[in-house]
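CORE FACILITY INTAKE
Project code: CF-77B
Contact: R.S. (postdoc)
Sample description: multi-component assembly, two entities in total
Requested service: structural model of the whole complex
Turnaround: standard
Below are the sequence entries exactly as provided by the requester. Do not edit them.
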Amino acid sequence: MPIIIISSDAVQSAEQIAKATADAVGYECLGREILPEIAATNKVPVDKLEEALGKSSSPWRRMRAKRRSQLLAQIEAHVLDRLMADKIVCWGLAAHLYVRGVSHALKVRLVPDSQQEAGRIAKQRGVSEEKAAKLLQTDVRKQAQWSQTAYGLNELDPTMYDLVINLGQIDPDESVRTISGAVAFRKFQPMTYSIKCLAENAMAAKVKTKLLATMNDISVQARDGRVVVTCKALKRERQKKAAAIKALAGQVEGVEFVEVHLINYVIREAAESFR
Amino acid sequence: MSQPLEILLLDDEPIVGKRLKPALAKIGCEVEVFQDPISALARIDEKNFDIVVTDIRMDEIDGMQVLERVLAKSPKTKVIMITGYAMIALAREAMDKGAFDFIAKPFKPDDLRQVIAKAAAAIGSPIDFTPASYST
């Protein structure tokens, strides 16, 4: 059966509609309540995982970006593993950004009613509606920057989704009926190709999590048990790094072969040559 | 299984038919191999196959057209699409048009045998297939 991935700037609406959709179609609902499980598995604090999924209030510093990549990779690996079971409605875990090429994943974007959201923010933060509207705009902009920095994708781009619902016009009950109707389309049924794509996404995420524990600037692709890792390295450390990557990646279940592509750290090489 | 499964395999690359025909014969299937979609469609007009396995990208007639023709003539036939150009849009289009399954090339003969076994079960003629028990 298909999987449904719901994303929105309005987390509460996403949660409410995801849970109601899961009830309507008889699927499991997977959301932020699994963060403690991910935290326990990876021995990290839950609030750090929540922070990694949220808006950053300041530009990322080098160390911060590295830490965030590690935490997001841990979330990604865990969620992708759970999605393999299918018949799942997933919300609030950024899955719309890392479930790629999976044709049985129906991606839904909920666009909140900006006036209603501003009203909610005004009440929550004790500010005027005018001020709340500005805060909302800033939040949306930061979230778009976050998705761009973390995954190289602008989550506000509607072409990323199969279905975009304007909550200002379509109420939650209608949204649930719309999503439930769309997921029944034959095109969203799982097939050998899409199940394999999801399994390969999951394998790549596990390898990435493993490697990011000790390295950074890693990109991983998986295909048929073969894993391709692209990573930056200094000339003098190339052999050692390639061997370490192969050893670590090879520990992940299902990995049969590891190919390593090392890119020169041009700036660091140049900096070291002037020392 | 009382009757062997009758399969038509269409791929313009000769190596595909050469490799897959014996692999499917091992699980008791009778396979007719075609490289030319026009000849394959002529055969489909003559006979209802249990399963049609077709490549998508071919000259003159593509796999999507073959899928539509097969289902128009024999809705019970299960059509399995195979392609070296797998993309999300193509996969969804194939499923939308009624394909039973969609497999990206390259694949192992066992992958296809597994899908054939699934299709056989869906048409009510299950075959005995355990992936580890067959070599490629």
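Facility notes:
- Chain A touches chain B through 14 residues (CB under 8 Å).
- Residues 104 and 188 of chain A are 4 Å apart (CA to CA).
Invoice: internal transfer
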